[in-house]
Write a structure and sequence with these properties.
Elements (H helix, E strand, L loop, with lengths): L1 H7 L4 E5 L2 E6 L2 E8 L3 E5 L3 H6 L1 H4 L3 E3 L2 E5 L6 H14 L9
Antiparallel strand pairs: 1-2, 2-3, 3-4, 4-6, 5-6
Helix pairs in contact: 1-4
Length: about 100
């Protein structure tokens, strides 16, 4: 997961936020990711990103702001990169503190 995020956002910096790994870009958290017992998670899944990727999200467990990738299947790295790139377009392009 980390490698896919890094490939999509090479200028993002790695941080820990809310106790889990995250990538920060332009002064804001771009995405968080975490490994759990049965899946890895990628946050946030905004409504716009979910709508734009609705077909590809079928078959993955999602919640309001999360997509879960099961550990018993290969991580869809290209899909993760597309999600991260979509998140990049949602962030303000100027540096500033997150609200």
């Amino acid at each position: 997961m980390r490698e896919a995020i890094r490939a999509a956002a090479p200028s993002a910096t790695e941080v820990i936020s809310y106790g889990i790994p995250a990538f920060r870009l332009n002064g804001r958290v771009l995405v968080w990711y975490a490994a759990w017992k049965n899946h890895t998670s990628l946050y946030p899944m905004t409504a716009a990103v979910k709508r734009a990727n609705a077909v590809e999200l079928e078959g993955y467990e999602t919640s309001k702001g999360t997509v879960r990738f099961p550990l018993d299947k290969p991580l869809p790295s290209a899909f993760v990169r597309r999600i991260v790139k979509a998140r990049i377009t949602e962030l303000p392009q100027t540096k500033g503190k997150a609200k």
